TrEMBL record:
It comes from Aeribacillus pallidus. The active site is at residue 473. The chain crosses the membrane at residues 12-32, 58-79, 86-109, 129-152, 164-188, 200-221, 233-254, 274-298, 305-322, 328-346, 353-373, 385-406. It is found in: Cell membrane. One of its GO terms (molecular function) is protein-phosphocysteine-sugar phosphotransferase activity. This is PTS alpha-glucoside transporter subunit IIBC. Residues 451-533 form the PTS EIIB type-1 domain.
Length: 535
């Protein structure tokens, strides 16, 4: 069950990767159209303003089509075969589902307590998906429908039909099965979702009133669950779903950014829900403190090597908001440090929230600055100065806390390993020949770094015969093995370029980094070649 949750969480991350660029783009356009910052350039009738209006409309694409992105993204992460065809089946089925809901509520809307004649948006509970007026199930409806399609696709895509029905095989058969499967679901949704919408409205009020403790608990869970891959289920409903505001914090914040940028009212008073999007603060202020502590406690002769690794990892966290390269450098050798990291991250967010800092601050410096600090600084200077003071104070706290624990517990963080701590493996003649065959497969692959890395990972995981399933999330190669005893030591994976490895029975996560899609593709090619040889 844990493995299934991890795969599902990874699949959810596929469309989420598109949000940082869209957020930066919209944030910059709002900045460039702000008259208080740009002066006469921001004249609505001028060419400058009109140009950025066009760019802004393009930037809103991702935010305006969030459900469709999740419908298409989940099959990419969860389908076991023919991913592109699974995406097509999911898209067709999702549109069919919304046409069903539209027809049901057009005919029987009053019976379900829905005034389907209302305009979409606002408190009507209605929206428009690809031109279809329907209930606003947001990403929840998209995830449910797409997941059902993936299950049916994985089970029926290869089903052989009689020759005279051959035209209905493959994707067509999957869509046919889905058509009849979602009809009762559309009826159930038309009846139950309006009730859920009322419940969500009540939940919004509860979470908004949970104040500092709620922000602390949210941020702690978002960070502490990263090793399991289940942190997606914590922040997803808040940032991209309707947990606290309709459409999610990311979309709501961008929609109201112009209003906040021209008002001197407290940000916390205008948008208290924004406290649930401060988890990016640990990426900007916490990670540098951790990196400095690791550097200071490294052995003198290893500091130069360690600094090169830490600088790149820290910049990745601060600028892009990707923390795994540095978090996984200490997670595996000292889980206690990761728990301390989660505690400090939650405490930082809670203190910042108590002093009035809110917004959409879950990413890195570039994303946060362009959609928060820069466009809003004029009217919210004191809030942001206070936030930075708190953040820098926590950088110091992080440094001293981690330095103390690393030394006190004698943690083998990078640069503190024993000089003789190297994994030694004796290779047989068969091992040597197999390795040479992989290296010499063809000249293209020999020069393909992703292929080489995938080959090393496959070998360390026990070979093709030991792989039952493979998928990936944003930074991790997720593999299910047949026999976990065949897996090589962790250092073998690190020597191949992995940041670390998580083992949970037969469910294995290899921490690759942002190049994981390319590595997975080469990994699957190797598996395919192996199966062909077996046949």
């Amino acid at each position: 069950m844990m493995q299934k949750f991890q795969r599902f969480g990874g699949a959810m991350f596929v469309p989420v990767l598109l949000f940082p660029f869209a957020g930066i783009l919209v944030g910059l356009t709002i900045l460039f159209k702000n008259g208080d910052i740009m002066g006469s350039l921001a004249d609505p009738d001028g060419a400058w303003y009109k140009f950025w209006t066009v760019i802004e409309e393009g930037g809103w694409t991702v935010f305006n089509q969030i459900p469709l992105l999740f419908v298409a993204g989940i099959p990419i992460g969860l389908a076991k075969k023919a991913h592109a065809r699974a995406v097509l089946a999911a898209l067709v089925t999702y549109l069919t589902f919304n046409y069903f809901v539209n027809a049901i509520l057009t005919i029987w809307g009053e019976n379900f307590g829905v005034d389907f004649s209302e305009e979409v948006g606002g408190v009507s509970g209605l929206t428009e998906i690809a031109g279809i007026k329907t209930l606003d199930t947001n990403i929840i409806g998209a995830i449910v429908i797409s997941s059902i399609v993936v299950l049916i696709h994985n089970h029926y895509f290869d089903k052989k039909l009689p020759d005279f029905l051959g035209i209905f095989q493959g994707t067509s058969f999957v869509v046919i099965v889905c058509f009849f499967a979602i009809l009762p679901l559309a009826l159930l949704t038309s009846w139950g979702w309006p009730i859920i919408q009322n419940g969500i409205a009540s939940l919004q009020g509860f979470l908004a009133s949970s104040d500092v403790l709620g922000v602390w608990l949210y941020t702690f869970l978002e960070r502490i669950l990263i090793p399991t891959g289940l942190h997606h289920f914590i922040y997803g409903p808040f940032i991209y779903g309707p947990a606290v505001v309709d459409g999610g914090i990311a979309k709501y914040w961008m929609e109201h950014l112009s209003e906040y940028a021209t008002s001197a009212h407290s940000l916390k008073e205008m948008f208290p829900e924004g406290g649930f999007a401060l988890h990016g603060m640990s990426k900007i202020f916490g990670i540098p403190g951790i990196a400095l502590a690791i550097y200071v406690t490294a052995k003198p002769e290893k500091k130069k090597i360690v600094s090169g690794m830490l600088i790149a990892a820290t910049l990745t966290s601060v600028v892009a908001g990707i923390t795994e390269p540095i978090e996984f450098t200490f997670l595996f050798v000292a889980p206690l440090l990761f728990a301390v990291h989660a505690f400090l991250a939650a405490s930082m967010a809670a203190v910042m929230y108590a002093f009035g800092a809110v917004g959409n601050m879950g990413g890195g410096l570039l994303e946060i600055a362009s959609s928060n600090w820069i466009p809003l600084f004029k009217y919210h200077t004191s809030t942001y100065i206070t936030q930075w003071i708190i953040g820098l104070a926590f950088t110091v706290i992080y440094f001293f806390m981690f330095r103390y624990l690393i030394v006190k517990l004698n943690v083998a963080t990078p640069g503190r390993e024993a000089d003789d701590q190297k994994e030694v493996k004796l290779y047989t003649k068969a091992d040597y020949k197999a390795k040479k065959q992989a290296e010499n497969k063809n000249s293209a692959n020999k020069e393909n770094a992703y292929f080489v890395q995938a080959s090393e990972f496959l070998e360390a995981l026990g070979g093709s015969s030991n792989i039952a399933d493979v998928t990936n999330c944003a930074t991790r190669l997720r593999v299910t093995v047949v026999d976990e005893s065949k897996i090589a030591p962790d250092s073998r994976f690190r020597s191949a370029g992995a940041h670390g490895i998580v083992k949970n029975g037969k469910a294995i996560q290899v921490i690759v980094g942002l190049s994981v899609p390319q590595v997975r593709e080469q990994f699957e090619n190797l598996l395919s070649d192996s199966s062909k040889k077996t046949i």
